[in-house]
Design goal:
Blueprint (H helix, E strand, L loop, with lengths): L1 H20 L46 H4 L7 H9 L1 H8 L5 E6 L1 H5 L9 H7 L6 H17 L2 E2 L10 E2 L5 E7 L2 E5 L3 E10 L2 E6 L8
Parallel strand pairs: 1-7
Antiparallel strand pairs: 1-2, 3-4, 4-5, 5-6, 6-7
The structure holds 2-acetamido-2-deoxy-beta-D-glucopyranose (NAG).
Amino acid sequence: MKPFKAILASSLVVTSSAFLVLPFQSKPSPAPRLNDHNQSPIMNPGIQLPAAEDGPPSTAPPKGDVILSDVIGNQRGINVFASFTRDIGSVTSRLESAGLNTTVLAPVNSALSALPRKPWEDPEDYAKLGAEAYDGKSGENRANSNLKRFTEAHVVLASPWKEGEKVDRMEGGQVWWEKKDGKAYVQPGNIEVDSVVSKVANGEVWVLKGVLNYAS
Ligand SMILES: *[C@@H]1O[C@H](CO)[C@@H](O)[C@H](O)[C@H]1NC(C)=O
C-alpha cells in the first residue's frame, strides 16, 4: 500500500506545482527540478513544462502547420479582439501569412469593455462632426479606419519575441516587453501579459490585461 500512496502523493505534488508555475502570476514558484530522479515531471505525461526562460510561460506547445488565423478565434476570453482581426483585412492577411511571423497582443474582453470609448471611436471625430460622426457610409469608413489603427497597434511584426527586443507594430511605433516580479509587461504603457495562449507556425497569441496606446 505504501508505495502506491507515495506515488500518488508525489504525482499530486508535481501536478499542483506545475499548475502553479504555468500561469504568469504564479512565478516565481519553484520550477520542478529536472535532475530530481524521483519526482521528474517528465515521468508524468499529463504535465506541460513551462516555456523556456526567454518568453512568458505558455500553456501552448508549438503546433506543426497550424497558423495564427486558424487559432485566433479559439479563445473565448479574447473573442472580441479576435473578431477585429477578422474585420480588418490587413491584419487578416498578416495572420494568414505562413511566411511572416507575428505576435498578436490580444487585450482580454474585459479590458475592451472597460475602455472609456469604443476602439472605433475617436474624440476628434466627435469634436469635428458631433454625435453623427459615425452615421452613414462616411461614418462607417471613419469607424473602420479607427478600428484598423487600434487593431494594428496590437500586432507585433516579429515572433519569437525576446525580452527587451524592440519590435515594430503593424500600426507603427515600437514596443518591447520586460519581466518584473515574475510578470511580463509590454512597454510603453506597462501593460501586463496574462498568458501566452497559442504558439503556432507563424507566431504566438499573447493575452493582455489592458490595451496598448494607439495614435488618435
Ligand atoms: C517563425 O516562427 C517559427 C516558430 O516559432 C520559428 O521557428 C522561425 O524561426 C521564425 N522565423 C523567423 C524569421 O523569425
